[in-house]
Design a protein that fits this description.
With about 300 residues, this protein is α+β, with helices and mostly antiparallel strands. It has a single domain, classed as Creatinase/methionine aminopeptidase superfamily (Creatine Amidinohydrolase), CATH 3.90.230.10. The protein has five helices and 15 strands. The strands form five sheets. Strands 1, 2, 4 and 5 form a four-stranded antiparallel β-sheet that branches. It has a three-stranded antiparallel β-sheet with strand order 3-12-11, with no helix packed on it. Strands 6-10-13 form a three-stranded antiparallel β-sheet, covered by helices on one side. Bound molecules: zinc ion. The site of zinc ion (ZN) has 5 residues, from loops.
Length: about 300
């Protein structure tokens, strides 16, 4: 069990920066968190909970993030290269005063991830990769604006129609993301959220990628913890108001196994070559449920 975090004195300023006395601010919430910790739960540290100012910064960043994906959706078409998607993201992000977070992140060479068909994630935009009718593509946009990160991804079906295997996994991934988001509320765990996603994936006959998942987000692009969508109910981190993370299960049409491209060391593919899809939202745990920051 992790140690209890030091707490301010009752009449000292609250750790959240509200300026209020601790006893009339986060003291009661911390008591509740402590009761879960004593029962053996993993609980978030204060630094993992966003203050009202930080939440507003994330909302502002999210507005840009979603506007960029809206614009991609309006422009995407057969005959276009994935590099052109990168161009759109670069141009719009700069116009709105933001920074595309993926560029140079751990050496990633582009400003957005574009993952087509059997690519699970971390597809690298290229002039050589031309979209064709019936392709399915995940566009994953991560935005830094005035110090705050937002993150979301959507699927696009090129030409609007595709084969049943691809269409099913796109629908499944969206239903899984939506079920995960709908489950988010305080005093349950990340494992409870994952379990709701697992039920939906099963209904669609799809599998969930195990090695890659979601993450905390906001002050950093990727914050603790790693968010698994294959964990068991009642396990993993306790959700507490102010916690922000991504709901982004990667859903495979066939088997869950994946491999990483040996040439670029980034792009992840399904082992069986069948399609994969993903939709991603950034969410905030609130007092009585969740606020969807990106979708
Ligand atoms: Zn407080």
């Amino acid at each position: 069990m992790a140690k209890a975090e030091p707490r301010p004195g009752r009449n000292d300023p609250c750790w959240c920066g509200s300026g209020k006395k601790y006893k009339s601010c986060h003291s009661a919430q911390d008591d509740k968190v402590e009761s879960f910790r004593l029962k053996g739960h993993m609980v978030p540290r204060h630094s993992q909970l966003k203050t009202p100012e930080q939440i507003q910064g994330m909302r502002d960043s999210s507005v840009l993030n979603m506007a960029i994906l809206d614009a991609v959706g309006e422009s995407i078409h057969a005959g276009m290269s994935t590099q052109e998607i990168d161009d759109i993201v670069v141009r719009l992000t700069a116009e709105m005063g933001g920074i595309a977070a993926p560029l140079n992140y751990e050496g990633f060479p582009k400003s957005v991830c574009t993952s087509v068909n059997s690519q699970v994630c971390h597809g690298i935009p290229s002039e050589k990769d031309i979209l064709r009718d019936g392709d399915i593509i995940n566009v994953d946009v991560s935005t830094l604006y005035k110090g705050y990160y937002s993150d979301s991804s959507r699927m696009y079906i090129i030409g609007g129609k595709t084969d049943p295997d691809r269409a099913n996994v796109v629908e499944a991934a969206k239903a899984c993301r939506d079920a995960g988001v709908a489950a988010v509320r305080p005093w349950i765990t990340l494992g409870d959220v994952a379990y709701e996603i697992q039920k939906v994936a099963k209904q669609y006959g799809c599998t969930i990628v195990r090695e890659i998942g979601g993450h905390g987000v906001g002050i950093e692009f990727h914050e603790e913890p790693f968010v698994s969508y294959v964990s068991r109910p009642g396990t993993e981190l306790l959700l507490v108001p102010g916690f922000t993370f991504t709901v982004e299960p990667m859903i495979n049409a066939g088997k869950h196994e994946i491999y990483v491209d040996q040439d670029n060391n980034w792009t992840v593919y399904t082992e069986d070559g069948r399609p994969s899809a993903q939709w991603e939202s950034t969410v905030l745990v609130t007092e009585d449920g969740c606020e969807v920051l990106t979708c």
